[in-house]
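> forwarded from #structure-qc
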């Protein structure tokens, strides 16, 4: 039986948590796997190489990588954005209805204009607040 190939000195050989293959990590980061191997060797990227008979099995810790496209967290974030935008649209429609009502009844027009202004402010707050409601779930 042949001796397993060993990684360079200082590179870990036993994963201590969830890992992905070097090929998957390279695809998710948009980099060449040789670049990632150099980054692991220099300590810039957490990962390692498991000894194997013919070649090393390089890996990268999953928490070093961005979430997978189309993953559950991405879907949840998109759903939260849609809900936030729907709420902003509802507020804009309510504000428009208040303005139309103000035109119909002159005696309460000042109150209808104030109500419309409040709805517009709420809608603007929805668009101007950084992030979206989905970010609150991550806190």
């Amino acid at each position: 039986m042949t001796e397993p190939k060993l990684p360079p000195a200082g590179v870990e050989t036993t994963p201590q948590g969830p890992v992905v293959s070097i090929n998957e990590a390279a695809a998710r980061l948009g980099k060449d796997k040789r670049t990632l191997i150099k980054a692991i060797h220099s300590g810039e990227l957490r990962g390692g190489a498991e000894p194997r008979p013919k070649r090393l099995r390089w890996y990268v810790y999953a928490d070093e990588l961005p979430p997978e496209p189309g993953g559950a967290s991405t879907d949840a974030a998109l759903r939260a954005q849609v809900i936030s935008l729907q709420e902003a649209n509802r507020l804009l429609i309510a504000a428009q209805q208040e303005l139309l009502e103000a035109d119909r009844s002159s005696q309460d027009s000042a109150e209808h204009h104030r109500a419309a202004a409040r709805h517009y402010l709420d809608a603007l707050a929805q668009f101007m607040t950084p992030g979206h409601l989905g970010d609150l779930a991550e806190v």
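QC bot note: The chain has a mean pLDDT of 81. Residues 84 and 132 are 7 Å apart (CA to CA).
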